[in-house]
Structures are given as structure tokens and as C-alpha cells.
Amino acid sequence: xxxxxxxxxxxxxxxxxxxYDARAQRVTKxxxxxxxxxxxxxxxxxxxxxCTGDPARRAGNEFIFQMxxxxxxxxxxxxxxxKIVTACPHCFNxxxxxxxxxxxxxxxxxxxxxxxxLIEEGRLTIEGGAYKGKKITxxxxxxxxxxxxxxxxxxxxxxxxxxxxxxxxxxxxNGLCCGAGGAQMFKENEPxxxxxxxxxxEEVLASGAEIVAANCPFCITMISDGITAExxxxxxxxxxxxxxxxxxxxx
Amino acid sequence: MGIQQIIxxxxxxxxxxxxxxxxxxxxxxxxxxxxxxxxxxxxxRWKNVFLIAFGQKKMFKRWIPAVLHGFIYVAFLFTQIELxxxxxxxxxxxxxxxxxxxxxxxxxxxNSIEILTILALIGTVAFLARRNLLKVPRLVMSDMNxxxxxxxxxxxIGELILIVGVMTMNGADVMLxxxxxxxxxxxxxxxxxxxxxxxxxxxxxxxxxQVLERFxxxxxxxxxxxxxxxxPLSKHLHIFLAFFNVYFTPIKSRGEMSNMPDxxxxxxxxxxxxxxxxxxxxxxxxxxxxxxDVTNLSWKNILGAYSCTECGRCTSECPANAxxxxxxxxxxxxxxxDRATExxxxxxxxxxxxxxxxxxxxxxxxxxxxxxxxxxxxxxxxEEINACTTCNACVEAxxxxxxxxxxxxxxxxxxxxxxxxxxxxxxxxxNAVENSGSVxxxxxxxxxxxxxxxxx
Lengths: 251, 456
What we know:
With 251 residues, chain A is α/β, with parallel strands linked by helices. In chain A, 43% of the residues lie in helices and 12% in strands. Chain A has helices at residues 15-20, 22-38, 54-59, 62-79, 89-98, 111-120, 152-159, 196-207, 217-229, 241-248, and strands spanning 10-13, 42-43, 83-86, 107-110, 135-138, 164-166, 211-214, 237-240. In chain A, the strands form two sheets. A four-stranded parallel beta sheet of chain A has the order 2-1-3-4, sandwiched between helices. Chain A starts with 9 loop residues before the first strand and ends with a helix. The N and C termini of chain B lie far apart (99 Å). Chains A and B meet through helix 1, helix 2, helix 3, helix 4 and helix 5 of A and helix 11, helix 14, helix 18, helix 19 and helix 20 of B.
């Protein structure tokens, strides 16, 4: 599937988590399934894809960022990439907002935006009533929500599932971070009273939702860990929006 | 020229002289920062000034303080009209100079000011209560210990004095209008003074009322003078700088960290992909990357620090702070301001001991040769900056568009790039990205997951 002289409709930017993290791989597969079922011709860069550099840059390591980012821009420009979809809001943000300064200009969408557009256009329909009436809450990731101002697309996708969307106490622009951003994912916490993901998991549990819909592989890990720490992992499940759609359609 | 006019003129001149020096020092301190381009059109930035600075749009995320603050803010704006009259009356020995020109409009104006003054009184008392009795968490956190706490209360007490001055002046005036209408022109019915003055000032003689009226007038003036001189020492400077800070806030995506062209150029030349026509500049000496002091932050960061009124909305929204970490975005901004002030004061002292060793030959202390052996890291610890998740909650929270995240990230850059320090946990991630193009070092191919998909 590596882009070999093909000009597919869209490049699916998989990202490190989507490629290597067992939990996030399921999201990668779910998004692939959606694209295939809708009939969108897509490519991946495969082994030619590198980390976007987001965690290195936000940790302060500009050298590493520039090395990996320039590499990616070179690769994508070589293939003439125009449109990109990714299931990671960090990759989405970096490619969209930081690659232009390095000469990489692409039309980038987050997968929840693509899904919501496909639903709106009638190209993606949700058939089963697997989530009908189920209490679903939505966790705004910082880099899709507060940073890039996208609050509606993921909510529209959830509404299409016919579930009962229950907002968390802190949502949209006031959404509480899961604790992973800014390269926190890769280090131990600084001393404090509790972990940020515990704080968020407590808010999820207080909402009474059975399902947490997320849009970011790191949020999924963080919130799942937080819920597991409270020993509620059998009562509250954390899914990416793409997985909910695949499940609902029995794909 | 009457004795009062002479005193008035002296007070104005002395205030102007002292204030000029203090405000010029703040301007100089802001300019200690590096130049930066402010992205975005003038039109878009003016729109922000109208909506966010004048219109206080972002305050309304929290209704109660927004309304209370709104009372004081609108009263402040309106009272400026009265202040112009006070200056004219003070200089020319007139009394209520605008009254004959404005007539009924004057009555409306003074009534508006009186009603707003009472609303401002409610706001001020409520704010004192929030700080000292209700102890609203963000106003009493450890960041606020010591001077910041005193500062917050002094401002509110100053406002009370101002309100007492205005109301005493008007109250005595309406009583005098009945006794001596040739000197004290009829202002028409004043909602507050005309109602309250007869209750409190019934039976006062003309002389006593005249003294009281002058007392109120001078108290108002001295409260204003006091504020002008106190502002440069105080967080209350936001009443002016908030407008500038909003105007100079770039219009760009929050998601874009400032690019570092030096490093980009070096990496691109290493990779042999330097864009045509661009020759990367090679310097013998490795420059400092990021910021370890206010002098290598941008002037916009320092302007933000002086604009901060320490409301703590940023810190109360910060996920790291909420879970007990040491990071407080407000404290970061306060530290930047305190450090800029410290450098400014040392520069003013002119002491040659602050000239850096490398430039020991120079005889006059300037911002360029300054080195007092301290840095911003004496104010902000690595533990603080390392706790940041870059979630942008602080950026979203600030009612006047201060960006605490920018300096935090510049400090991180210094820590990693110049000091080669930083959390040891990050090293494997850096190595993995550098060597295997992934945040984790994993032997599998990046597309190994596709095997399952193709099978199914």
C-alpha cells in the first residue's frame, strides 16, 4: 500500500501510536475499514512515514523536530501529497500548522472531520442501533478542540450513532487535558497530588456515561488507565469515534 | 491665581514628572525583550481590541466576576469625563466648568457617574470580600502570598477612597446649591447625592459644607494621583496595558510553535535540501537557543507580564496545577515581570559590577553588556516548566490574551538545547525519533499492522 506512483484521493497519516501502539492500531484499522467501505482510495506512507516531531518540539528539542519534520515534508512533497487524514490530533496539528513553515502545504483533516463530512454527504450511513440510547460522553482532545477549534464534527458523528450524548463538566473550550500532551506521555509526572488522567477519569465516572468517545490515541490510553485505576474498566469503555462507527455497522 | 490653583498645578507637575520616569522605565523593561513579528492584520487585531479589551468578551466565561468587574470598569471609563472637568476646574479656578455648556446633558452625565459609582462601590466591596472573606481559591493561592495579596487589597482600598471623594464632593455640592446658588450652580436632581446628602448633611453650615466640598474634590484628585503613581508598581497596570496586549497579540494558530530558522537552516543544509537561493549563515559561536532570561524572550511576552492583573484564571484552568503540580501559569508571568523589573532597576543603578565579564572593557552599563549572574531560572524552576502539557487552557482562560505557554516552551528549549538538561525520561523518546523515526524504539516495521488488515 505504500504510495508507489499512485495518486490516491487521500493520504492516511497513521502516526507512531497508530502504527505501533496495540490499542491505537485498532483505531487505525477502524479508520481503514471506514475508508474502504465508503470507497475512498487512500494510501499510507508505510515505512517512509516518521514521527511528525510534535512531542520532541514541545519537549523543547527543536533539532529532533526539524530532522524528522523536514524528512516528512521531503517525502510527502516527493509523492505530491495534497490531502491528508489522520486519527491523531497531534499529528493533525503539526502537519496543519507547523509544516507550512518548512515548505509542507497540505490540506489536512482530522478523521472525525472526515467522518462527519461523509455522514453529512450521505456517503457514510450508520445502520445498526448498537448505541441507541446508550449514554455516551465525549472527551475533547486539546489539539483538536482548544488548539484547532474543532468541537462540532466529532459531536455530529456521535449524534449519528443515536446515542445519548452526555457532556462532561469540563468540555469544549474548557475541556480538561488527559495529561499526555506536551510530551508528558513520555515521562513520569512531576510531583503532585494526583495524575491528570485520574482527575479526568473521575469526571467521566461522575457523568454516568457507559462509553467515552475520544479522538486521540493518547487520550484513549490516558483515560483508560485512569478508569482502570478506579477499577471501573468493566463499566466504562473508551473508544475512538471511528471504532464506534465500525461497531455500529458490524463491519 | 488662587492658592488652590497653585497647589493644583504643582501637584499635576510633580505627578507628571515622577510618572513619566516610572512609565518610561516600564517601556524600557518591555523593550528588553527580543523583537518579534506580530502576525495578523491590523483590522483583525483592532477587532480584538474592541471585543476583548473594550468589550471584555472573555470575562463573561465567569458571570459573577464579569458583572462586578464591569461595574468598576464602566464607572472608571465614565469618571474620566469628570476627571477632565476636575483638571480644568483645578487649573482655571472654575467650578463645574462643563455645567453651563451641557445643561440637561450634564445632569444626565453626573447622574450616570453617580449610579455607576454606587455600582462600583458594590463591585469593590464584593471584590474585597472575595479576596478576604470568601477566599476564592485562585485569589488566595500560594502565588499570591506577600506583596501580591497586599497589592490586590490596596487597589480596592484606593477605589473606595476615590468613591468616597466623588460622593462627598457631590453631596456637599447639592447642599451648597440650595444655600449659595450663584457660586454653586444647579446641577439638577442627582440620583444619589440629592437623596442621601439631606440625610447626612442636614443642618451643616455653609462654611463647613464648603470645606467638605473641597475635601471631597481634593480627595478625588489625590486618589487619582495616587493611582497614576502606584500603577507602575502594581498589577493594576492592566487598566492601560490590557489594551496594548490585546492589540499586539498575533492572529495565528495556537497550534503553531514559533519556528527556529537557525536550526531549520542547519538541519536542511545537513540534509542537503536547503531551498535554492538561501545560504544558511554559519556562525563560529553556537548561539543560545530558547530563553533563560527575559532578554531572550520576546517583548510581547514581557508586555504580557506587565499586563497581567494576577486574576489567576490561567492557573485555575491549568490541569497540572489542579492536580497539585508546582506549575502555575500566573506565577510564570509574575516571575517574568519581576525579573524584568529587577534588570531594569539594576540598569538604572548604573553599577559597573553588572557589566558581563566578556565585555569587562566597557565602562557604561547597558542592556547589551548586562549580566548580574542571575537568570529567569532563579525565579522559575525546571519542575514547573516540565509539568506543562501544552494544553492551551491558560491561553484560552486569559481575559486579555496573555500567552503563558510561549515563555514556558522557550524555557524548555533553553533547558534542552542550550543546557542539555531536562527530564531523563525524554532521552529515549528523542533517540527513538532521531534513530527510528518513531517515539518508541520498536523493532517492527511501521506498517506491520497492515498484515492483519490484508489478511481479513
